[in-house]
Amino acid sequence: MGNKCSNTDGAKFNLAKEYHKEDLPLPWSSDFTCNQEKDIFMAVNYFRKYPKKLVPFVRQCKTTWPEQFKEEKKINDSLCKMLAQHETLKPVKFDTNANKACAEVNKKLVAAENDEPVSGGLVDCYNAIVGSNETPSNEFSVFGYKESPEMLIAYQLLDYQVQKEKGQKDKTPDDEKLSKDLPHPILSKELSAIGVSYKSHKKAENLTQVLYVLGAKDEQEQTANEIS
Prior knowledge:
Blueprint: E1 5-6, E2 12-13, H1 15-21, H2 35-49, H3 55-64, H4 66-69, H5 73-85, E3 93-94, H6 96-112, H7 122-130, E4 137-143, H8 149-166, H9 173-176, E5 191-201, E6 205-214, H10 219-227
Parallel strand pairs: 3-5
Antiparallel strand pairs: 1-2, 4-6, 5-6
């Protein structure tokens, strides 16, 4: 992650440089453990503010992951059209509990050292930490990822759209809260916070976990409410 990607005009896109030009929140150093986690946070917020600028990266998905997206031109075009017209969304913050959930899941996977790590478990872990399953959340895992953080956002949106339009999206109790008529959490007005964890892995090279939380109350906010 963190490498530069070319857009359709052949110009180079530097996420950190573009992000710092904007009035967007910078995470505290305690919110992340490595640049990969910080990059994902910045990519989510940058493309929530400028959905249209994600279009070149969505277009690029068909060449980066041809087996998955080469035949999905219609859906790709539809998503790009939607992004080009999409409104600006408010930035999100890192959530302490979501970060903990992502880190705990990755810690278990690193310890297991399986040749093929198993995805999932973020939502259950988060619910256990906060002691409730009332906060809608959506999880994403990827292993051995080598592309840029911009492409990671584009991949998630396109894959979500493909699964939704083809009616193949698996349904879990948490997914049921996210109607098929709603966008991916990255483009949701309700998204308030995210958790991210990136760890090296002996077999898979790296593990990336992202948890999107809608209407989250951070650990510090919860403590303040309890005191008051």
